[in-house]
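thought: fold this chain, then report.
action: predict
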Amino acid sequence: MLREPRVPLFEMTACLTKAVDLVSRALVDHQNRVAYIASSLGAEIGLPLCERNDLLLAGILHDTGGLSLEERLEAIVFDHDSRTLSRHCNQGYLLFGRFEPFREAANLIRYHHTRWDEQHDLADRGVVVPFGSHVLHLADRVAVLLTDQEEALGRARDIVERIQLNKGGMFCPDLVEAFSSLAGKEYFWLEATSRSISAILSQRVPATQVELDLDGVLNLAKLFAEIVDFRSPFTATHSMGVAAVAAEIARRFGFSDRECRLMEAAGYLHDLGKLAVPASVLDKPGQLTEKERNIIRVHSFYTFQVLKPMEQLATLAEWAAFHHERMDGTGYPFHLSGVELPLGARIMAVADVFTALAEDRPYREGLSGEDALKIVRRLAEDGGLDPGVVDMLGLSYEYLDAIRANVQGTASREYREFGGE
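observation:
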């Protein structure tokens, strides 16, 4: 029986940051840098440790509500129009505000592109901007001016001058002065641009930080699935469907309740690496080019790389990331075969294919449960899927399809409420 996981919240959040960084090289470590600068500013002005921790979490997550590459790239232009960026701020607030450990960070994210001189107009409308949002805003703008460690010390004076020019307008005057003091210390620039910034941030997290039990992992994994799936109307409910089908098949194989919940979490996370796949490829109505197919084939490897560092979830990582391996060894990315594949991974592969066939895609309408089952059976006969798992699916495919449809119907409503098409 699998042990109950105890996963540090920061460690799992860092995995999401790694996945988000896959979207574009221009965005690598941006969220970590914002987290570092924001928490450093918090310390400089004497904020309590709990508020600095909220700033650190908010920094790591702040742009994740920008689901498209275009939104993310627009957000790293220094002289931005805060009104055009309000959408991804609000999306981040809606995403993370539902998860209790992120609730305070979500409040900061909601207004992290609000200028200092805009707060009075907002106050007249009954909107109170948290002070932490102003800290996050300044940290974010400093981070977009940074390039690499080799140039950081040489550019420090120019960056300080740029921030000083916006004192009282874009930024809180007291925060600008605190930043100017902090900027006089070389270590600040060297750590902010360090390639080991994730390790530096982890050292700032107190030993008493929140640890997630299996229910917490499940809830956070579902949130991650929304970040992945909500990028496209054609995948908006995919991971929810896969998670439900995989967990139910696992239950029929005699998996314990705990293992079934872990399988559900693996289903939520199986496509985490798709954050590296452009939406234009995911939504393409016609046949993919060889280059586009290769881009998609990388996603399961990225899922494995992102999840692998969490030793407490090693089994989950395998179940999630091996869903494109084949029984005959011709799958990807590791070309595992037969007994090399854990039963959980073979269940995930069947759940993924069955769910995908039942969904509408840009190039076809979703198939009925019966027609989807026929294709799944052919894939088993051809050496792709585990025949035993497919037989288990076939024994109750109508019930499993009903579970999938019900779960995805709920997810579809949540997607529309979130602002999807």
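thought: worth noting. The chain has a mean pLDDT of 89.
final: tokens above.
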